[in-house]
4-hydroxybenzoyl-CoA thioesterase
Amino acid sequence: MPFETTTQVRFAHIDAAGIVFYPRYFEMLNAAVEDWCAQALGQDFRTLHLHHRIGVPTVKLDVEFVSPSELGDVLTISISPREVGRSSCHLHVVFSGDDRVRLQANVVLVCMDLQTRRATPWPQDMRSNILEGIVHAV
């Protein structure tokens, strides 16, 4: 089962056409990754960033905008890990609402040492939880 979280489309997310302005999806995506780290991987961003000095920046993003979202829509964001490397993680992300896909993305995150700003191996507990998500997705 993929990790799922929800968000509501707010006034700050929409443009003059009344639909989500595309960069706002990226903010929603980052918030969903933050939820995934805290709820599925056992490491909230506060602990990762302030105590472990680790970040998980997006280094690759391939997005297809399938259907527009409007003010008030409630979107489900599904995150499915596909592959984990020493310091990288490939995710498939789907935003959906009202039984239709709004956005699909393939995302690559990298575990990064915030001091050196270089890739670093995933902490073992996080890596194990990512792998568990991959196994359950198969």
Q: What stands out?
A: Strands lie at 3-8, 54-55, 58-65, 74-84, 88-97, 100-110, 112-113, 118-119.
